[in-house]
Design a protein that fits this description.
The structure is a single chain. The chain is of the alpha/beta class. The protein contains 5 helices and 8 strands, in the order βββαββαααβαββ. It has a 5-stranded parallel sheet with strand order 5-6-7-3-8, sandwiched between helices. α5 links the parallel β6 and β7. The mean pLDDT is 92.
Length: 188
């Protein structure tokens, strides 16, 4: 099943072309990497696919939006409350096995602002994983993660894909062998 299809997709910010002439399809099963250098439009394309930025030449089922878990550059947590309270206020479960897998078990009652960059990122990823959404849109999911956490995340990705669902990520770190690549070149 095709989730997204673009036809001659172009995007501008302040009259500057970020990317142009993109044609691709994304199906409901697999990992897709949006690859490119800084400023090539990876994050912008994720926002378009999430529905945050509407574009006429991106085709997708309107019911898709309720099945998307999106993680952008910002982690989306309240800094002044605990990690546990952050999960509680959005009604997300505190999944003990995921917290343990990502080394967060002892941090549940810590204020979010006391966590390291990597711990904050892992917390945000655990929230996405816990969402049970079929489509994960992730902006640089490996940023700030140590090697063990990256390996754990890759295992979670593979488990998710076995369920016949989709991961779309902006990534300029190590390539995933099993992913379909969408390359963006920086327009000057």
């Amino acid at each position: 099943m095709i989730l997204y299809k673009t036809s001659d997709l172009s995007y501008e910010i302040d009259s500057r072309t970020i990317f142009s002439n993109l044609d691709f399809e994304i199906s409901s099963n697999g990992i897709y990497e949006i690859r490119g250098g800084n400023g090539s439009g990876k994050s912008s394309l994720l926002k378009i696919l999430s529905g945050l930025n509407k574009m006429d030449n991106v085709y997708y089922d309107e019911n898709l939006e309720s099945n998307i878990a999106y993680l952008g550059h910002k982690n989306g947590f309240v800094e002044e409350i605990s990690l546990r309270d952050n999960f509680d206020i959005i009604g997300a479960p505190v999944n003990d096995s995921l917290f343990k897998k990502f080394g967060l078990s002892k941090l549940k009652n810590h204020k979010f602002f006391n966590l390291s960059f990597g711990e904050k990122r892992k917390s945000a990823l655990v929230r996405v994983i816990s969402s049970k959404k079929k489509i994960w849109l992730l902006d640089e999911p490996f940023a700030g993660l140590d090697k063990e956490s990256i390996n754990n995340l890759k295992k979670v990705f593979n488990e998710h894909i076995k369920k016949g669902v989709c991961i779309i990520m902006a990534n300029h770190q190590e390539e995933l062998d099993e992913s379909v690549k969408i390359y963006l070149e920086k327009n000057v």
